[in-house]
Design goal:
Elements lengths: L17 E9 L9 E9 L8 E5 L16 E12 L4 E8 L7 E4 L2 E4 L1 E5 L8 E2 L6 E5 L15 E7 L1 H6 L8 E8 L1
Parallel strand pairs: 2-12
Antiparallel strand pairs: 1-2, 3-4, 4-11, 5-10, 5-12, 6-7, 8-9, 8-11
Amino acid sequence: MGRGRPAGSGGSVGPAQAHRRRVAISRAALRTVGACSALSILFAAPALAASNNVRITNLGDIAFGTVANLSADAVQSESLCVYANTATNGYNVRAIGSGSGGAFALSAGSGSLPFDVQWSATAGQGNGVQLSPNVALSGQVTSATQQTCNAGPATSASLIVILRTAALSSAPAGSYNGSLTLVIGAE
């Protein structure tokens, strides 16, 4: 998979388009209250054919702020635009984390903080289908009618990132960092 221009750089959908955004995640400074973390999320679209185009736009940062309540999951959702120029408006999504083997995990020195990733083909959702590392979720259909959602719905899908209670309460305090790559493919 090649790399291309980031979202919002203008131009047409190219043969190897990659999109990158940063997501901030925090844990409070004390073990019982949390510590600070950051997660970079990389968005990538695979090679595109003229008759089978996909595009992901309207990406932004997801900020958890300080996570003080370790007895509840910390959940953040982002609505974005996924466009698929296919006969069915169909696409698939695959996520790869920066943990071992592509696992969804943040790291701080020797500490690790796993997280969950969910996807919904509907905008404005707080939960969706659980994604497994490097496994495509197929059968998604977009409501987007234009490549950057300038006409029709402003957003068409939701990315949900979850820091689970068990992971938060067992992770050592620290500044966590990691990355997540999303790959959108036409169907």
